[in-house]
From TrEMBL:
UniProt binding sites for xanthine: 96, 139
Function: Purine salvage pathway enzyme that catalyzes the transfer of the ribosyl-5-phosphate group from 5-phospho-alpha-D-ribose 1-diphosphate (PRPP) to the N9 position of the 6-oxopurines guanine and xanthine to form the corresponding ribonucleotides GMP (guanosine 5'-monophosphate) and XMP (xanthosine 5'-monophosphate), with the release of PPi. To a lesser extent, also acts on hypoxanthine.
Name under which the protein is recorded: Xanthine-guanine phosphoribosyltransferase
Species assigned in the record: Kiloniella litopenaei
Keyword Glycosyltransferase among UniProt keywords: yes
Binding of Mg(2+), residues: 93
Enzyme class: transferase
EC number: 2.4.2.22
Main location: membrane
Catalysis: reaction(s): IMP + diphosphate = hypoxanthine + 5-phospho-alpha-D-ribose 1-diphosphate; XMP + diphosphate = xanthine + 5-phospho-alpha-D-ribose 1-diphosphate; GMP + diphosphate = guanine + 5-phospho-alpha-D-ribose 1-diphosphate
Binding residue positions for GMP: 96-100, 138-139
Length: 159
């Protein structure tokens, strides 16, 4: 039997629950001047955290790291972070290799960096996260998913 790829699919409910759990954790780290969302993955978590912590000042840093076939390439910064980082909260959906987080950290050295999910290679670069998954797991976010049928693990025995 071929090895199934490791996946970690996240539903909207789970994402909302994890973003609220992260907000609870961040209550002890603030208060924050504003949130810097790392687009695009950080936008939805940032909106939920901003609602929970009553933060109304939101900015973005716009970075492309992975292509549409999930392969990492050169980082492209389309829009820089603001100059001031003291008291700011950086939010992204996940840290994987840590390449994106390292680049954003350089732009905002004094900010607190939070993600929902972390893989081992990147976990030490961020300050707060909720769930760790193994390095060989691909996380699927609800905005990338659709309801569909899946085949059973074993099929065709009685064909
Ligand atoms: O730790 P790393 O290996 O750098 O990977 C993590 C980054 O990769 C993904 O973004 P992506 O570039 O796919 O863009 P997106 O947020 O627009 O989907 C994810 O949202 C993180 O920002
Ligand atoms: O949707 C995603 N899932 C992942 O596990 C991942 N790692 C880097 N970039 C990613 N994007
Ligand atoms: Mg991203």
């Amino acid at each position: 039997m071929s090895e199934q790829p490791k996946t970690f699919p996240v539903s909207w409910e789970q994402l909302h629950r994890d973003a609220k759990a992260l907000s609870w954790r961040l209550m002890n780290e603030g208060p924050f001047e504003g949130i810097l969302a790392v687009t695009r993955g950080g936008l939805v978590p940032a909106a939920i955290i901003a609602r929970e912590l009553d933060i109304r000042l939101i900015d973005t840093v716009c970075i492309v790291s992975y292509s549409s076939d999930n392969k990492q390439g050169e980082l492209k910064v389309l829009k820089d972070a603001p100059k001031e980082s003291k008291g700011w909260l950086i939010v992204d959906d996940l840290v994987d290799t840590g390449k994106t987080a390292r680049a954003v950290r350089e732009m905002m050295p004094d900010a607190h960096f939070a993600t929902l999910y972390a893989k081992p290679a990147g976990r030490d670069i961020v300050d707060s996260f909720i769930t760790e998954v193994s390095q060989d797991t691909w996380i699927y976010f609800p905005w990338d998913l659709a309801l569909q049928t899946v085949p059973p693990l074993v099929q065709g025995k009685y064909d």
